[in-house]
């Protein structure tokens, strides 16, 4: 039987046991004011929501001429140049994974994990890993989990491989990768499925979830806030576009549908989402069946009110 339902307060999605306001506010860093020398404008005239992420991978970067300083340990790169795309070529003898789209990717420590995707209309089930220290690709071979005592894991995987998926979402949770929703020809369920990939045992399992489980979909966004996943939008199995908001409590594995104030994004899929200071959910872009969006919406996770931040056009 499902565990008892302990829903978060109606007017807040960021309050959870053991999570204090001062801990939330330290989660992100905002760039200090600076001057844009190219345009003579101060950063205060640029969009105020500017996040940075410190990357200290000790990895190599390709020079503009295309040469890489390599070795047995891969490119010995000290730092990546600012405001410039850099092509990371795999080390000699390391083959790239097959080309794909609608895959999911997540960085865990010094490795990039790429799961599934679509190639020529066929969904993939492989897990590919790029090691930033060595610049080498490798395939991660998974086996079904035999541990059903952790996080409501279903002990029913048998000897089946990880499901072939496309348009799914993935986040890191504890020592695992959490894979949510997506399109799979092997699935007959009309509800969102959840899987865990355990990076310590290289095993996977489906997970039992409870509460008001959302309808199956692909192209949704899934964002981790504390110990909760926030899922927005997507496209269901009948190609209907969605703009609903659901929250999965990872401590209880209970889903809850959240009603927000009016004025939110139009139904869409394949959009991007991010959390600012673990207080605001930002939704950008995406598609309908007839257009691509370039709008930006912000949801206050305490008041559950949508707004559209004022933005400035900046030529890069």
From TrEMBL:
Record's keyword terms, sorted: Kelch repeat, Repeat
Presence of keyword Repeat: yes
Coiled coil: none
InterPro entries: Kelch-typ_b-propeller, Kelch_1
Domain of life per record: Eukaryota
Keyword S-adenosyl-L-methionine assigned: no
Region named Disordered: 1-49
Descriptive protein name: Uncharacterized protein
Species per Swiss-Prot/TrEMBL record: Aegilops tauschii subsp. strangulata (Goatgrass)
């Amino acid at each position: 039987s499902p565990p008892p339902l302990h829903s978060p307060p109606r007017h807040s999605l960021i309050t959870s046991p053991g999570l204090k306001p001062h801990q939330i506010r330290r989660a992100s860093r905002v760039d200090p004011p600076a001057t844009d020398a190219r345009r003579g404008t101060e950063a205060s005239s640029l969009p105020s929501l500017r996040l940075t992420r410190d990357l200290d991978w000790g990895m190599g970067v390709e020079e503009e001429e295309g040469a890489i300083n390599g070795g047995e340990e891969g490119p010995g790169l000290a730092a990546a140049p600012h405001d410039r795309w850099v092509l990371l070529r795999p080390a000699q003898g390391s083959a790239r994974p097959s080309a794909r789209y609608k895959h999911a990717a997540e960085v865990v420590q010094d490795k990039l994990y790429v799961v599934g995707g679509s190639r020529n209309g066929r969904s993939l089930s492989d897990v590919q890993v790029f090691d930033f220290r060595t610049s080498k690709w490798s395939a991660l071979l998974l086996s079904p989990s035999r541990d059903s005592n952790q996080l409501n894991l279903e002990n029913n995987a048998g000897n089946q491989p990880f499901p072939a998926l496309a348009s799914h979402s993935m986040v890191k949770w504890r020592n695992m990768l959490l894979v949510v929703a997506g399109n799979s020809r092997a699935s007959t369920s009309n509800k969102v499925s959840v899987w865990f990939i355990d990076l310590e045992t290289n095993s996977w399992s489906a997970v039992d979830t409870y509460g008001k489980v959302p309808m199956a979909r692909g192209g949704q966004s899934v964002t981790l806030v504390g110990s909760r996943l926030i899922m927005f939008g997507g496209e269901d199995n009948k190609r209907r576009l969605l703009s609903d908001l659901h929250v999965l409590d990872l401590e209880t594995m209970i889903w809850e549908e959240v009603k927000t104030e009016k004025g939110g994004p139009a139904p869409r899929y394949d959009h991007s989402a991010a959390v600012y200071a673990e207080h605001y959910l930002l939704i950008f872009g995406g598609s309908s069946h007839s257009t691509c969006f370039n709008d930006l919406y912000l949801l206050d996770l305490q008041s559950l009110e949508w707004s559209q931040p004022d933005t400035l056009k900046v030529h890069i």
